[in-house]
Write a structure and sequence with these properties.
This protein is mainly β. It contains 1 helix and 5 strands; from the N terminus they run αβββββ.
């Protein structure tokens, strides 16, 4: 689990919006991208992000 302090400072690498955690992913609802969390390490690479076009907040 990511610490609360880390979640406070992590932002979307595309638009710099705050991220939300959901199902072992960090979600940017503004860009509609999901960044995976692998063994408690966020993978913040834009080319590895997943599109979330149909998901709701």
């Amino acid at each position: 689990m990511l610490s609360a302090k880390l979640l406070e400072i992590l932002v979307c690498p595309v638009c710099k919006a705050q991220l939300k955690t959901k199902n072992k992913e960090l979600i940017c609802y503004k860009c509609k991208l999901a960044y995976s969390i692998d063994e408690d390490i966020p993978v913040m690479l834009i080319d590895q992000a997943r599109r979330i076009d149909d998901e709701q907040e």
